[in-house]
Design brief:
mainly alpha; single chain; 4 helices; about 200 residues
């Protein structure tokens, strides 16, 4: 198979030679440090360090304790100025517990827990809300009395929570129905539908 004449021949890299071993450049030796005779004589003639008069060494603070070292003996704590209450004996028998009251004898009349069943306000609120369905005027006092009765029932001052909640809901529904009725009449009257 022949190669076309327009193609170049394949690339052949030049032969490689081993690199020369590394030789650091030659440098001159650094000059030795020469100390002056004055400096040597002044340090040798100097007196040992003496602290100025009135100087005291600072407190080194707490010293770290290495693992395995015995702890340093602690100083006795100062006496407390208040008397210390005696500790109870851990081996004493437990204190006597308060006994529950005895149940009533067999066949005795059952005495239920005394609830405050004052539901007059809740009843009045429900009556006003129901009558408010016919006359819109009594729905508003029914709502007010229902809120007061509901607050008393939540504080356990009176019973009738369900009646009070029913009176509030019924009162709001009644007021909403009457308002929608009057708005509808007003819109129909302004558009001329009630003139016929």
């Amino acid at each position: 198979m022949t190669t076309p004449p327009d193609r170049e021949p394949a690339y052949e890299p030049p032969p490689t030679a081993d690199p020369a071993p590394y030789e650091p450049p030659a440098t001159s030796e650094p000059a030795q440090y020469e100390t002056s005779a004055d400096a040597v004589s002044s340090t040798s003639e100097a007196d040992p360090l003496v602290p100025p008069p009135g100087w005291t060494a600072p407190d080194p603070g707490p010293v770290a304790q290495l693992p395995g070292d015995l702890p340093a003996p602690a100083a006795q704590p100062p006496a407390t100025p208040y008397p210390v209450a005696p500790q109870p004996d851990p081996f004493a028998p437990p204190p006597a517990y308060q006994a529950f009251p005895a149940p009533p004898p067999y066949g005795a009349a059952y005495q239920p827990y005394a609830h405050n069943t004052d539901t007059g306000l809740a009843t009045g609120a429900l009556v006003c809300s129901v009558i408010g369905l016919v006359t819109c005027v009594l729905s508003i006092p029914g709502i007010a009395m229902g809120h007061v009765a509901l607050a008393k029932a939540n504080r356990n001052e009176a019973g009738g929570r369900t009646m009070a909640l029913s009176a509030v809901v019924l009162g709001y529904v009644t007021v909403a129905l009457w308002l929608s009725f009057f708005v509808t009449l007003l819109v129909l009257g302004l558009n001329g539908y009630l003139d016929r």
